[in-house]
Amino acid sequence: MKKLVFSLLLVSLVIAMQAATAFGICEWPNDSTVPVELSSFTAGISSYGLVQLQWVTQSETNVQGYQIYRNEEMNLASALRLNAFIQGTNTSSVQRYIFEDEEILAEGNYYYWLQHIEFDGTSEFHGPVMATVTGESGGSAPSIPMIPGINMAYPNPFNPSITIVYGVPERGDTHVAIYNMKGQLVKRITDRFLESGSYQYFWNGRDESGSEVSSGVYMVRMTSPNVKSSRKIVLAK
Prior knowledge:
five-stranded antiparallel β-sheet; mainly beta; 1 helix; globular; Immunoglobulin-like
């Protein structure tokens, strides 16, 4: 008799849980692991005169790989997918990737998007970042024009990411970071010796600990030899 009562109670419990799940009262826990934690995505010109893309991941889970899209205007819908597939590493340690675009011949502005693809087929885009290819007659190596200080931040306001462009006129120790309006450090962009040139940084709206920052006004500040520059950016969620 006790076994019969226990069996009836167990069946009733299962039926009740199924009904609760069907009506949204009870939900099974989901795996909230982020497939890719991207900390930077930048574009520049290599020593060989090619557009060079670099991105850094803090961790990867269930990532098949990456694809690159390029366009001469800031429009992902009409962008060209490049003939390259970069395998993911799926590791919890920091990974740095470098890709050089060998297909560009004409001068101009080029926008790039990074797409990460998971093994189940889902994907997400990051970017864009921009590189400006210039060259004198005779086929000299292209370069990114340099404007001293923080000369561009787009889109602004932004959500959830922004590209910050800054120029270093003289080689030397360069410090670029993002602060809140209380003057507290939010994200360090660079703090090292840099050669003169133009640099880009893709910020994903996360602080030094990897946590998402709240909506509000932030300041990008830069100091380098003979340059002090700042620019206000707004995160609007």
